[in-house]
User: Fold this.
Amino acid sequence: MLGGLFGKATFLGEDLEPWCLETWAWLMRNLGGMERLRELILVTPTRDYFPPTEAVGDERGAHVFEHVKLAMGLAEWPCVLELYHRREANARVDELLVLQGRGAPNGTFHWSEDGAVVRYARDLIDHPSQLVATMAHELCHYLLATIAEPSPGGAETHELDTDLTVAYLGLGIFGGNGAFEFKQYRDTYSQGWSSRRSGYISERTWAFALALFLRLRDQPGAAQPWLKPGLAAEVAKADRYLVKHDELLAPLRAL
Assistant:
């Protein structure tokens, strides 16, 4: 177990960090090891991976989905894409009333008679980073279904494992940037703040996973131009931590 390598001071905590490293090792064992990790790409929010399109609405969602699949190396995997409408969490009914609630999930994955089905909330089309992260997360459910070896955390951490797989496959920029969105609104009648969360792991865990992905590939700092300021600072801290504790990476490099 990699957890035995830790001292008292860890970047993520004495329980979360071993889970992250052990699950990363599980992914490497089952998805190709260091050789495969080096072949993966760091997917960025640029036209290199997401070419411009004049499509709108549902067609734009389908356009993004096809390029997410391509970036993940799953372009040839058959999958049905569906969307649904949902009531916005903490939606404002009028200038004085806010309807509080978590709302429906960003996306889902399930099997049907037609095979794999990915569904996403239509309002995400206006939130590109969260849309890509959601689609990548649901496609990772598809990929993880091919792994026979149980994950270190078992069924209880399945959604966390799935988020971590997004980072492992090179889409951590989207997962990290979309993990938490905070903004202020102001109109004629009122002003206030709203927040929006996506995914299952924290922004700090995304930072650690991104730093891990880049450090193992000898690409430290490669994601910085596309990260939110706070996340960029956390990724830099995580990288410094990994450099200081290189013994944590040795078992992974050996795979």
